[in-house]
Write a structure and sequence with these properties.
Blueprint: H1 7-21, H2 25-32, H3 36-44, H4 52-61, H5 76-84
């Protein structure tokens, strides 16, 4: 399992999966119904924001899923309580 904590990490994971599948950026774009430019930007992790629906389309086109898991360490509320002494 690949963990992606940043947009750059996600882009690297998508690029690795595409290459492992032997697909070109154009093939992934066509399957996901997005532009090749979007795939390039997503893989580079350089876009200011990527629409979640389009990201998920690329992920699905590569036969991948995204899983969410609780990050290690205290939650936002727990951190506030620690800082505020509540």
């Amino acid at each position: 399992m690949t963990h992606a904590a940043t947009v750059e990490d996600l882009g690297k994971a998508i690029r690795a999966a595409r290459r492992e599948a032997g697909l070109t950026q154009a093939q992934v774009a066509e399957a996901a119904k997005v532009s090749r430019a979007f795939v390039i930007t997503l893989e580079a992790g350089t876009g200011p924001r990527a629409e979640v629906g389009r990201v998920l389309a690329v992920v699905r086109a590569l036969g991948l899923t995204i899983s969410l898991e609780r990050a290690a360490g205290p939650s936002y509320t727990e951190t506030l309580e620690l800082l505020l002494g509540s």
